[in-house]
Specification:
The protein is an all-alpha fold and about 70 residues long. The protein has a domain of about 40 residues. The protein is about 65% helix and about 0% strand. It has 4 helices and no strands. It starts with 6 loop residues before the first helix and ends in a 15-residue tail after the last helix.
């Protein structure tokens, strides 16, 4: 059963509410996302599209381009 949200709970730091280990994992993940967001924001559009394409091919989301031969035209 969840506790009702009280002013005392709202004033607690996130690290107390989540537990130290969970909070550190959360903070690490959000710091990494913020860093990635800043890096992507500073990239030129073409670099960004190339990066997305690379990640997509790496994880198999986007198919690898096949060389054109007489068989698969």
């Amino acid at each position: 059963m969840t506790k009702p949200i009280t002013p005392e709970i709202l004033s607690m730091p996130l690290s107390v509410l989540m537990g130290k280990k969970n909070y550190l994992n959360y903070k690490h993940a959000t710091d990494n996302m913020a860093f990635l967001g800043k890096a992507l924001h500073s990239m030129a559009r073409n670099e960004l599209l190339a990066y997305i394409g690379y990640i997509g091919r790496l994880y198999g989301i986007i198919e690898q381009p096949q060389p054109q031969t007489k068989d698969n035209k």
